[in-house]
Write a structure and sequence with these properties.
This protein is mainly α. The protein has one domain (2-401): Ammonium transporter fold (Orthogonal Bundle). It is built from 15 helices and 2 strands. It has helices at 2-6, 9-36, 42-69, 104-122, 132-155, 159-163, 171-189, 202-221, 229-257, 262-276, 285-309, 317-335, 351-382, 389-394, 396-401; strands at residues 93-95, 100-103. The chain has a two-stranded antiparallel sheet. Strand 1 (93-95) and strand 2 (100-103) form a beta hairpin. The longest helix has 32 residues, at 351-382.
Length: 411
């Protein structure tokens, strides 16, 4: 009964639900990537995704949350005052004055789910080429030196927040940083020896897309951190952008190749979801339609450019997430409306905000790319980043993990 006297049970339940939805996105991503990978590398890519659930949780509770959301006002990174959550009582209200009167622990868990999935997004770029040891080092270092600073700078009251930069649910913090880190990874490790390996299970890709789409409602609507009108706007904007992007991608690819591709439809949906993310609670519904169409068009062109330049981004992480996050952040600067959010964009006469969003995404893209490339270069001195040719040829599943995704029968 004390719980009901202190906390709003409706908002608390909502945030628990949204946290659970975002957690579900990580297994969804594993299914999505696992289906797209060749049959000898299904478990390798899924392992890289699932392991983040454990390692990132340990990091987040130990010091990650503190570095992101403790101290460092107007700076680049926080401090260790809340390490191991030692100064966060389990019954502490998060922000009751703003109507967010639910336990701080729910906010901590919600943000932890973002931290889990962000580095996992990168793994689709270097499928079949990265050793598991090097990936574990990468997973830890990348969060500390890339993800945590951008969380703090934008969502933790840091430098970019002081500038007036907005990112509703992770266009800069999640998708742009992960996407351009993926591009750096691709350029560093080089091409696969076998680039013709088809998806092993398109139905598995569909299941993964469904879980991602479902979880994205918690990702975007939950980022309002309270139940109000903006929550429902973000929810509907998410679905509308994804739907328009899916159909737009389908039409473009159908026109281009002469056949309607299921994987294209699914990829378009994910592009729409990634692109609406930074703007979901800041733009009107009609803008979500435009953003969805733009997401499919621009991300499709990015994938074609990648192919033309010979970048072996195996599962199009840069083209979908990197370019999607960049595009969505820039379009937020164009379409933001004070009538539905807290800020006017370019079409309402605020050019300054547009250039702030443009600058923020440029900084994120360049920093994530450069740091990731240098980090992989350093990791290679500790343990070889790229697997030997014989391991790549035989597949990571059996060579590194001693397992196979499918039972091929016995004799």
């Amino acid at each position: 009964m004390i719980f009901n006297a202190i906390f709003d049970s409706g908002n608390t339940t909502f945030m628990i639900l949204c946290t659970s939805l975002v957690m579900l996105m990580t297994p969804g991503l594993a299914f999505f990537y696992g289906g797209l990978a060749g049959k000898r590398n299904i478990l390798g890519i899924m392992m890289q995704t699932f392991v983040s659930l454990g390692i990132t949780t340990i990091m987040w509770i130990s010091f990650g949350y503190s570095l992101c959301f403790s101290g460092g006002e107007g700076g680049i990174i926080g401090n260790f005052d809340l390490a191991f959550l030692s100064n966060v009582p389990f019954d502490q209200a998060f922000d009751a004055a703003a109507g967010k009167n639910y336990p701080t622990f729910i906010f901590i868990a919600y943000q932890m789910m973002f931290a889990i999935i962000t580095p996992a997004l990168i793994t689709g770029a270097f499928v079949n080429r990265i050793s598991f040891k090097s990936y574990l080092i990468f997973l830890v270092a990348w969060q500390i030196f890339v993800y945590y600073p951008f969380v703090h700078m934008i969502w933790g009251g840091g430098l970019l927040a002081q500038w007036g930069v907005l990112d509703f649910a992770g266009g800069v913090v999640v998708h742009c940083t992960a996407g351009f880190a993926a591009l750096a990874s691709v350029i560093y490790v080089g091409k696969r020896r076998d680039r013709q390996s088809p998806p092993n299970s398109i139905p598995l890709v569909a299941i993964g897309t469904g879980l991602l789409w479902f979880g994205w409602y918690g990702f975007n609507a939950g980022s309002e951190l309270v139940v109000d009108g903006v929550t429902t706007l973000a929810f509907l904007n998410t679905d509308v952008a994804a739907s328009f992007a899916a159909i737009t991608w389908l039409i473009i690819e159908w026109t281009h190749t002469g056949k309607p591709k299921f994987v294209g439809l699914l990829t378009g949906a994910v592009a729409g979801l990634a692109t609406i993310t930074p703007a979901a609670g800041f733009v009107p519904l009609w803008a979500a339609i435009v953003i969805g169409i733009a997401a499919a068009s621009i991300c499709y062109l990015a994938v074609q450019l990648k192919n033309k330049l010979g970048w072996d981004d195996a599962l199009d992480v840069w083209g979908v997430h990197g370019v999607g996050g960049l595009t969505g952040t820039i379009l937020l600067g164009v379409f933001a409306s004070k009538a539905v959010g807290v800020q006017s964009g370019l079409i309402e006469g605020d050019a300054a905000f547009f250039f702030k969003e443009l600058a923020s995404v440029a900084i994120a893209a360049v920093y994530a790319f450069v740091f990731t490339y240098l980090m992989l270069f350093i990791i290679n001195f500790i343990t070889k980043v790229k697997v030997p040719e014989n391991v790549e040829d035989s597949g990571l599943d059996e060579a590194l993990h001693g397992e196979k995704a499918y039972d091929e029968g016995t004799f």
